[in-house]
Amino acid sequence: MASVRHILQQMTVLDDIDHRILRALARDGRISNLHLAEKIGLSPSACLRRVQALEGAGVITGYRAVIDPVKIGVGFVAYVTVGLNTHTKAAQEAFERGVARAPEVRECHNITGTVEYLLRVEAADLAAYKHWHTNVLGVLPQVHAITTFVVMDSPKDERA
Q1: CB atoms near residue 132 (< 10 Å)
Q2: Nearest 5 degrees, angle CA 66-CA 23-CA 119?
Q3: What are 69-82's pLDDT values in tens digits?
Q4: pLDDT for 11-41, tens place per residue?
């Protein structure tokens, strides 16, 4: 019960204005405080205090640039599920270290279900992906099963 109490103490209570600020910043992290305040309906000083409070509470953990993948040579995106051959903490840690070194892996999620991991992989093209699949992922000794889902289009993508 103590751990639940600790988690509840760490949670930040957000009101409607905070949620509006977060949505606006998620759409445009470079918006000026003046424009953000106008959009939200606050004075600039009140808006700045709220943003600083959200940053201080760890609700806002950073700001990122949204990059056009084609302009940096990424023409192939896939989601890859990975099943491990043993279900131990050591196997998970070794696998995570292996994918952390691979720049093609843009996201790595430990998930529930029939496999342990879901990866978002970006490569120049199918040939580059195949090289990564065979020579990087495929040689990790913890890997038992790999399934690739090729992204054909992303009609909604709100990642920054």
Answers
A1: 21
A2: 50
A3: 999 999 999 999 99
A4: 678 999 999 999 999 999 999 999 999 999 9
Edge to edge, the sheet with strand 76-84 lists 105-110, 117-123, 76-84, 143-150
Angle at 136 between CA 135 and CA 142, to 5 degrees: 115
Tell me the pLDDT tens digit for each residue of 45-71: 999 999 999 999 999 999 999 899 999
Angle, vertex CA 28, rays to CA 26 and CA 30, nearest 5: 120
Query: Which stretch of DSSP H or E encloses residue 21?
Result: helix 16-27
| CA max distance for the chain | 57
Model pTM score: 0.81
Nearest to 121 by CA among 134, 103, 96: 103
List pLDDT tens digits, range 103-157. Answer: 999 999 999 999 999 999 999 999 999 999 999 999 999 999 999 999 999 999 8
Q: Which of 79, 139, 90 is nearest to 115 (CA)?
A: 79
64 Cβ contact partners less than 8 Å away, ≥ 6 residues apart: 29, 160
Q: Which domains does the chain have, with CATH numbers?
A: 2-56 (1.10.10.10), 69-150 (3.30.70.920)
